[in-house]
Write a structure and sequence with these properties.
Blueprint: H1 2-33, E1 48-50, E2 55-58, E3 61-62, E4 67-74, E5 82-89, E6 95-101, E7 105-111, E8 114-124, E9 127-132, E10 136-140, E11 151-157, E12 163-164, E13 171-179, E14 188-194, E15 213-217, E16 223-231, E17 236-238, E18 242-246
Parallel strand pairs: 2-10, 12-18
Antiparallel strand pairs: 1-4, 3-4, 4-7, 5-6, 5-8, 8-9, 8-10, 11-13, 13-15, 14-16, 16-17, 16-18
Protein name: Fibronectin type-III domain-containing protein
InterPro entries: FN3_sf (IPR036116), Ig-like_fold (IPR013783)
Length: about 250
């Protein structure tokens, strides 16, 4: 009888030891898996410095009769390892990119007598998110220019590639933004909308507009092209062409 009691006592003690040992192993494993890093911080937004927004007489450094070297500067953004500079020729929509910039200034040679827009994209090696700055415009001075053409209009709506919803009267509302580098110029707009290329002669109701919006009756389920001409009484400029579909 005593032998039997000793045997069961031994089994009970052994079971407790195994249970305690197993529990400790589980706790240790769980603690090791609980570690992990936080979400990477995305880069901040750069603040543009020069060329100044809407500057009419950015001269840069002349390198030939037709080109000047322009210095671009901006303020450093937080959590940023490098910057990409994007420059757009507003007459032709040609884009010049300069990537992997590790300082807050760089120089680019551009054609004279042309309007440009530019912006900076901040990048970080610890994040896949990028952050774009505001977009500024300027005119690179050309020989003998005393009055500049308006900046090409920025088309707002309908967006290119979008499907536009017609209202109860079958109309789509077009909106855009326009500006002129010359102080005191009064701007007028012509809205081109057609099914061909956005360059067909518009009706008189779409010309000499002072507002930056107009509703136009359009056919359903049709692809259209549109652009805007901006005039200051002396010079004119044309926006790029957008295409969209109606519902």
């Amino acid at each position: 009888m005593k032998s039997t009691l000793k045997f069961f006592s031994f089994l009970f003690t052994l079971t407790l030891l195994i249970s305690c040992g197993g529990g400790g192993g589980d706790d240790s494993s769980g603690g090791g898996g609980g570690g992990g890093g936080g979400t990477p911080t995305p880069p901040g937004k750069a603040t543009l410095t020069a060329p100044a927004n809407n500057k009419t007489c950015e001269t840069g450094t002349s390198v030939s009769d037709t080109q000047s070297e322009v210095t671009f500067t901006w303020s450093a953004s937080a959590n940023t390892n490098s910057y990409d500079l994007k420059i757009t020729n507003l007459n032709t929509s040609t884009i010049t990119n300069k990537t992997g910039i590790t300082t807050v200034t760089t120089k680019v040679t551009l054609d004279k007598g042309v309007p440009y827009s530019w912006n900076i994209t901040s990048k970080s090696t610890s994040s896949t998110t990028t952050t774009a700055s505001d977009t500024w415009k300027f005119y690179l001075a050309g020989p003998g220019i005393t009055n500049y053409a308006p900046f090409p209009a920025d088309l707002k709506s309908p967006k290119s590639g979008s499907t536009a919803t017609r209202d109860g009267d079958g109309k789509v509302t077009f909106t855009w933004d326009g500006s002129d580098p010359d102080t005191g110029d009064t701007l007028q707009y012509t809205l081109y909308v057609d099914k061909t290329d956005g360059k067909q002669t518009p009706p008189s109701a779409q010309t000499n507009l002072t507002a930056k919006t107009l509703a136009v009756a359009l056919d359903a389920a049709t692809t259209y092209y549109w652009r805007v001409k901006t005039s200051d009484g002396t010079h004119s400029s044309y926006s790029i062409v957008y295409s969209f579909k109606t519902d």
